[in-house]
Fold these 4 entries.
Entry 1:
Amino acid sequence: MNDQDTAVDTRPTKIMYVAEATAHGGRDGYVTSQDGQIELKVAMPPALGGDGNGTNPEQLFAAGYSSCFHNALILVGNREGYDLTGSTVAAKVGIGPNKHRGYGLAVALSVSLPVLDAGVAAKLVDAAHEVCPYSNATRGNVDVSILLG
C-alpha cells in the first residue's frame, strides 16, 4: 500500500469560488486578476539574478498562505471558544532547485497566539493545518514547518 492509498482526500466536494489571474511576461512582466483587484509588476528577486523591481510569485504565495492559514486558525479558535486577539501568521516561502531538474518550494509559517497558553495554541495550530486549503494543497509536495512563538 502506498501513500496514495492511505491519504485523506482533501479535494473540494463543491467549488464555492474561483479566483482568476493572468500572467503577462512570466517573472519579468505583470499579473492581473479578472476582477481588476490585482495589477502588479513582477520581477525576479536579486537572489535569483533579477533587479527586484516588482513583487514575485513567492511573495504572492507567502501572502496567500499566511492569510489563509490565519483564517483557518481563527475559524478553529472560534469553534472552540478561544480568544485570538492579536494573533498573526507570517509565511516565508523559499524556492530552489530540486533533484529532478526543476524547482521546488519550502514554507515556514510563524504563528503568534499571544493570549493563549502553549498547549492550547499548539492544538489550534494543528487543527488549522488540517483545515487550511493551502496546507491541504501542499501536504506531501512542499516541506511546511510551523513555528509557534
Entry 2:
Amino acid sequence: MAIKERVGLVVSDKMQKTVVVAVENRAPHPKYGKIVVQTRRYKAHDEENQCKVGDRVRIQETRPLSKTKRWQVTEVLNAKATT
C-alpha cells in the first residue's frame, strides 16, 4: 500500500510539536464545470517545532499519534521569510 503524501500551507503552529496544514484540492464541478476549491485541514506532527504559519510543507500519513493527529511533516518546501 502506498504512503499518502500531501503538500499544503501551515495555518496554525500554536500547539507544541503539532501544526495544522491546509491542503487545497481544485477540481471542476461535475455538472457545471466551474473550478471548485475544497480545503481539508490536517494536524501534523512537527518534532522540532520548525514550521511557522505561512510555510509550505509536505506531510506524510503515519500511524495515529493522538486522537486527531495522523500525519507528520516530512519537509519544509518554502519557509516564509521573517522580517
Entry 3:
Amino acid sequence: MDRKRSTAAAGQAWQIYSETLQPDAPGFFERVRAVPRMLKSVLRGRYKGMSFGTLGLLALGLVYIISPIDAIPDVIPIAGIADDTGLALWLAAVLVKSAGDFVTWERGGRPTVIVGEPID
C-alpha cells in the first residue's frame, strides 16, 4: 500500500472515529451492535440507506479475505498481508459508517413504506 492510500485510509478511520465521539452521534459499540439489525433491514427492504450493490461488495470483500486465493499471495512478506488488511479496514469503515447512519435513521422513527398505487 503506498503512502497516499495509507494516509487516506488513516484519515478516513480517524474521521469515522471522531464522528462516534460527537454528542448526538451513536457511539462505536452501539454501531457495532446495530450491524446485524441493519443488514436484516436492508435485506428485507425496510432500510434504503445501503444499496444491494454496497451489500454485495461487502460480501465479496469478506469472501476475498476468507478465501485462500489472493491477488497478492500471503507468502510475500508485507504486500501479501497488506491487501487483506486494507480490505478489512475498508469493510470495517463502511460498516461502522453505515451503521451510524442506520442508528440515526432508527432514532428518527422509521418511515413506513406502503407498496401500491398512490391515491389522489
Entry 4:
Amino acid sequence: MNAETQQRILDAVDAGFEAQLATTRDFVAIPSTRGAEGPCQDMISDLLRARGYEVDDWHINVDDLKDLRGFGPIEHDFSKARSVVGTYRPQTNGGKSLILQGHCDVVPAGPLELWDTPPFSPVVKDGKMFGRGACDMKSGTIGALYALDAIKAAGFKPTARIHFQSVIEEESTGVGALSTLQRGYRADACFIPEPTGGKMVRSQVGVIWFRLRVKGHPTHVAFAGSGANAIMAAYHLIQALQKLEIEWNERAKADRHFKTLNHPINFNPGIIKGGDWASSVPAWCDVDCRIAVLPGWSIADHQKEIAACVAAAARNHRFLANNPPEIEWSGFLSEGYELTDAAAPEAAFGKAFGKVYGGLPEDLVFTALTDTRFYGLNHGIPSLCFGASGGEMHGFNEFVDLDSLKKTTKAMALFIAEWCGVEKA
C-alpha cells in the first residue's frame, strides 16, 4: 500500500469523524446492560445493512455452547440473547481475511446521583465523551465500522473477506463471542478494539466467577450468642480467600509477562446479599466473587483450589464446620491468553501504527480479560487487541478520549487495508 493510498484513507477518517461521534453517541445512549442488549444489536444490524453487508442476526442457544472450551454458566434470562455478524465478501480475493469484533454489553451504572452527567445521556466536553460504555467499548466498535467506511470513502474496497461482529456477554461469560465461533465464523486474524490506551495486549488474565452460599442460624439479636450469623461467617471465608489471592500472586512472579506487575491477581467480593431483618441474626448470605488466573493455569485445578480454601476455612469455624457453605460457579470460567504465533498480523498492524503514531506499539500486560482468548485458544486464530484511551471503566463518569479514538480509528483503517488488501472501488 503506497503513501498516497494511506493518506487518502487517513483523510477520510478525519472527514467522517463527526459522523462517527454522532453514531457513537447514539450507541452509548442505549442502556445495554446484561439481558437488555437487543436495541444495541438492532442498531448494529441496521448500520450493517445500510452499508450493504450480508447480515446474520441470530438468537443464541446455550445448549449449542455448553460443551465448548471457555463456556461460562448463564444464570439470567437468555431468551432474547443475540449475536450479529455483518460479512463483506470481496469481488477480488487478494488479501487475508479478518474478524472485527466489539461487544455491546455494558456493566450496571450504579447509583445515578454519583454521575456528573446521566450515564446513558452521553456528553462531549473537554475532548472526551462521557457515558457508560463510551470507553468499554462502544466507541471502539463504532470506530471499527467507521474505519471500514473510511476505506470506501477514500475510493477503495478490501480484497479479502471481513466479518464485523457485535457480541454480548463479554462482561460476564463471553458466550457471545463463543457463539460466533460455534456458528462457523473464521478468519486469518481477529482484531478487537478494546480500550487499551494505545497499547497492544500481549498477555491477559483469565477470570473465575463464583458464589459463596452461606447458611446461619437465626435468632433474635437479643440472644445473638445462641445463633450463627451468616454474614459474619461469609466474611470469615472472604478473609481466607484473600490469603489465597496472596498465594496466587506469589505464583505469578514466575510468569514471564506478569512478573513485571506488582499484584496481577485480584480477588474481588463484588456482590453481597444476606439476611432479611436488622434485629434478626441472618440465616443466609450469598457473596458473588471474582478472581483472576494467568495464562496456562488450569481453570479446573484452580476451581479445586478455591473449593479447598473455602472448605478449610469452614472447618475452622464454629458453625460452618457442621454446616459447610456451597460454591456455585456463576459466570466466567475463562482461561488467560497470551498472544503468540501472530507475526504476520502484528507486522501489518505495526506498519499502520507507525504511520499514525510513529514507532512501534508498546505491549500491555492486561489484568482484565477480553474475548481474544476464544479465537487464539479454541481455534489458533491470532487475535490482536488494541484501542483508545479513556478512564473510569466500570466506575462513575466513564469516558473515552476523542483524540485517541480518532488515532485508533486511523490505525484500524490502515491495518484493515494492509492486512486485507485494497483495490480501487
